[in-house]
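#struct-help
A.M.: can someone run this one for me? Single chain, 149 residues.
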Amino acid sequence: MRKSMAAALGALALSMGLIALAQTKPEDLIKYRRSAMFLVGANFGPLAAMAQGKRPYDKDAAIKHAGIVAYVSKLPVEGFAPGTDTGDTKAKPEIWQDLDDFKAKMDKMNQETAKLSQVAQNGDFETLKAQVGETGKACKACHDKYRNK
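D.P.: on it. Structure tokens below:
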């Protein structure tokens, strides 16, 4: 009973947050998505450095960073609302011209970041290294097509 109540309250809080986000000014939505992307990069960087041998492998740090990446990577898509295609953004107009493909790429990234978090938990460095590569490919696929340098 408590779990279902907690799930219902969580869903309500999320929906209220999304409603509030939908009523936010375009420039604030751009800041929101850029902030979320910054946090993803700031936490993926140490994982990539471990995978490349530029930083010693640390299971606890990998778990922490992968968990943050998995959670925060779900957030930016809400910031790509209508009216956020201009302003202080590196987003290409192609996002809004092919929104289905963009969202599919974001979904793929979220799948890979979820796997990254799971893999980090098991402590197998070689598996983590491979998943860092797959996650990086998913991120790059979107950046290559939809992000100005």
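A.M.: thanks! The helical segments are 2-22, 26-51, 59-72, 94-97, 99-122, 125-146.
D.P.: also worth noting: The longest helix spans residues 26-51.
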